[in-house]
């Protein structure tokens, strides 16, 4: 479980997050949704301290941090050992093959044996039907393939929680569907995922829980069905704006 209490983040010209209190259950998929600029990505990036909140408390399993106090490198490492992030941009190592992209972190960061890391990488590639990509370089892959490899690279680190920041926003609809199928398969396997997404159809199908962020505040936190059938005027306005 990841839990945040009284989480706040202020910029000189904007309050990005204002007194956020949330629980992200393990082995469930939480979709963070909301309008552009509402604080969704700031919230997600605060969970592994890519963003440093000004105050609040962050708890991941048995580790609890007071974010108003100085945070040590050791504490940051502990947080990031439990999480893995997938960004909007594929951000693969362009000079490395798919296999090397999947094994670089486990070998160099986690100090795993090369053979163990490669075995895990092959298992992931086979599991998601991408074994034929093993020896290719990123420039030889489509955008959808690159993003799927980026997800597998995160999984190769065996994180407790997978964090995804709009992983399909830069893809056309066909490539987006390829990536969403991978995420849907992961959700079926009870992977602990927290996803910032603009795709409401995907969120409705896959998420166990919806967090609606609006202007730095939590506008909804609860079951997916309850969100999509809410009578709340702001939620109905938001969902209405997503269709035409």
TrEMBL record:
Subcellular location: Cell membrane
Gene3D superfamilies, per the entry: P-loop containing nucleotide triphosphate hydrolases
TM region(s), chain numbering: none
UniProt topology in membrane: Peripheral membrane protein
Xref: Pfam families: ABC_tran
Keywords (A to Z) from UniProt: ATP-binding, Cell membrane, Membrane, Nucleotide-binding, Transport
Keyword Lyase attributed: no
Limits of the ABC transporter domain: 2-240
Gene Ontology terms, MF aspect: ABC-type amino acid transporter activity; ATP binding; ATP hydrolysis activity
GO cellular component: plasma membrane
Protein name per its UniProtKB record: Cystine transport system ATP-binding protein
Natural source organism: Fructobacillus durionis
């Amino acid at each position: 479980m990841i839990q945040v209490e009284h989480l706040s983040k202020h910029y000189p010209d904007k309050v990005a997050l204002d007194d956020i209190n949330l629980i992200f259950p393990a082995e469930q998929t939480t979709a963070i949704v909301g309008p552009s600029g509402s604080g969704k990505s700031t919230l997600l990036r605060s969970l592994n301290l890519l963003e440093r909140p000004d105050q609040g408390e962050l708890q991941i399993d048995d580790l609890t941090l007071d974010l108003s106090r100085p945070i040590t490198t050791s504490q940051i490492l502990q947080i990031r050992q439990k999480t893995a992030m997938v960004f909007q941009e594929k951000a693969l190592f362009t000079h490395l093959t798919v296999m090397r992209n999947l094994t670089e972190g486990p070998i160099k960061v986690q100090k795993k044996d090369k053979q163990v890391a490669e075995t895990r990488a092959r298992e992931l590639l086979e599991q998601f039907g991408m074994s034929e990509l093993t020896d290719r370089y990123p420039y030889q892959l489509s955008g959808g393939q690159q993003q799927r490899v980026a997800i597998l690279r995160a999984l190769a680190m065996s994180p407790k929680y997978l964090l995804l920041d709009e992983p399909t926003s830069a893809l056309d609809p066909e490539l987006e569907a390829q990536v969403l199928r991978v995420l849907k398969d992961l959700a079926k396997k009870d992977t602990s995922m927290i996803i910032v997404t603009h795709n409401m159809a995907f969120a409705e199908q896959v998420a166990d829980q919806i967090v609606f962020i609006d202007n730095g505040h939590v506008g909804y936190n609860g079951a997916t069905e309850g969100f999509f059938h809410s009578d709340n005027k702001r939620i109905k306005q938001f969902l209405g704006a997503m269709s035409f």
